[in-house]
Write a structure and sequence with these properties.
Rossmann fold; seven-stranded parallel β-sheet; single chain; globular; 47% helix; alpha/beta; binds nicotinamide-adenine-dinucleotide
Length: 263
């Protein structure tokens, strides 16, 4: 299937690793001009070179912390006319509710929610002028099934879904779509490292920890394994494409069936 993404300008926040990296690579494979983002010049340069070589596409880079206003303004100034925005960057940290200070609640809101709100606000005028655009928030199944071990993370992911729906409403009748995509437990760099740490601390293999995780922590998973970043990227590439023109205001799951609901 040709996704008709050829030449489209796409920004994927936090795309030097994990799910964001898989999304950037997939969009580039489909011919989009992708702006790769990470916080250090070195990591961005490395991924830009790697993806350009691998895909033959035009791959651009922006090094900067896109949870900060100045960096968000700068990337849009440098690359006006962003047609596809994927708000991917995000943080997670298990912490008992009583130990989460105000500062962490603010940080999770600023990094996971406000970063995407701000970038959306900045790219929207050009999308409106072109009467075409795609904004995708990478939320999580944790938006629906709030994890008791990180309520602040769950809050931030539910908020992303609310923002995506509200923004979709605000651009009703245009060629701009806004959606959220909800991955389930995914073996990205962040989660992979976390599971490796748990495994080595308890003298178990990755596979043992994975099996236990799906038995005790996420027993509702229907695939009984971590998803791959590519599995999320496949859905995001479709939603980012002109083919998905009737998909808007939706929370789309790629969660391995973890959310125990058919819709
Ligand atoms: P990851 O930690 O593996 O990779 C995130 C990337 O973003 C890294 O390259 C990191 O350097 C970069 N990054 C982080 N903060 C940044 C910032 N402020 N500015 C620029 N770059 C930044 O993460 P991941 O697991 O791939 O998660 C990506 C998104 O998917 C997050 O929003 C996360 O909440 C969501 N998600 C992940 C899972 C999972 O199981 N991995 C499940 C559901 C949702």
């Amino acid at each position: 299937m040709d996704l008709n993404l050829n030449g489209k300008l796409a920004l994927v926040s936090g795309s030097t690793a994990g799910i964001g990296h898989a999304i950037a690579r997939t969009l580039a494979q489909e011919g989009a001009r992708v702006i790769v983002n990470g916080r250090s010049e070195a990591s961005v340069d490395e991924v830009v070179t790697q993806l350009a070589k691998e895909t033959g596409a035009t791959v651009l880079g922006f090094a900067g912390d896109l949870s900060q206003a100045a960096a968000a303004e700068e990337v849009v100034k440098r690359h006006p006319g962003i047609e596809i925005l994927v708000n991917n960057l995000g943080i997670f940290e298990p912490k008992p509710f009583e130990d989460i200070p105000d500062e962490d609640w603010r940080r999770f809101f600023e990094v996971n929610v406000l970063s995407g709100v701000r970038l959306s606000r900045l790219v929207l005028p050009a999308m409106k002028r072109a009467n075409w655009g795609r904004i995708i928030f990478i939320a999580s199944e944790s938006a629906v099934q709030i994890p008791p071990e990180m309520v602040h993370y769950g809050m931030s992911k539910t908020a992303q879904i609310a923002v995506a729906r509200g923004l979709a409403e605000s651009v009703a009748g245009t060629g701009i779509t806004v959606n959220s995509v909800l991955p389930g437990p995914t073996k990205s760099r962040g989660v992979g490292d976390f599971v490796e740490q748990l495994a080595s601390a308890s003298d178990k293999s990755f596979e043992q920890v994975e099996a236990e995780f799906f038995e005790h922590v996420r027993p509702t998973s229907l695939i009984k394994r971590f998803a791959t970043p590519q599995e999320t990227a496949n859905l995001v590439a479709y939603v980012a494409s002109p083919l998905a023109s009737a998909t808007t205001g939706a929370a789309l799951r790629v969660d391995g069936g973890v959310v125990k609901s058919a819709f």
